[in-house]
Amino acid sequence: QVQLVESGGDLVQPGGSLRLSCAASGFIFKFSAMSWYRQAPGKERELVATITHDGGKTNYADAVKGRFTISRDNTKKTVYLQLNSLSPEDMAVYYCNVEIHFRAFWGQGTQVTVSS
């Protein structure tokens, strides 16, 4: 079955950086676009970044452009999200996502806390 396992979330000071990872299994990773979403307390889940199956194209939410970078390693079946210049507004649970045959699959999420 499809499994997405996120890791890398942590407590970081404003201005700091983190690298999130999402290990995928149960589907043909190299043929699948991947996305990262986030959900802050009391807010709806929002799309953060998307990467095509071959990594050739990426898209970002306006709020993270220039600060976050999505990438992937198809040999490791892993997608990454590099978070730089973090602010308290970035604090959320970050989720990995894949859509297969119009069905969305999610990981369990990883918590990013930004606080001094």
Helices and strands, with pairings:
Layout: E1 3-7, E2 11-12, E3 18-25, E4 34-39, E5 46-51, E6 58-60, E7 68-73, E8 78-83, E9 92-100, E10 103-106, E11 110-114
Parallel strand pairs: 2-11
Antiparallel strand pairs: 1-3, 3-8, 4-5, 4-9, 5-6, 7-8, 9-10, 9-11
Taking pLDDT < 50 over at least 5 consecutive residues as the criterion, the unreliable ranges are none
**Main pleated-sheet profile:** 7 strands, mixed
Shape summary:
globular
Instruction: Determine Rg (CA atoms, Å).
Output: 13 Å
Q: If you average the pLDDT, what whole number results?
A: 97
Order of helices and strands: EEEEEEEEEEE
**Backbone structural class:** mainly beta
Count the E strands: 11
> In whole angstroms, how far apart are the ends?
40 Å
Oligomer: single chain
Count of helical regions: 0
- The helix content, as a percent range, equals under 10%
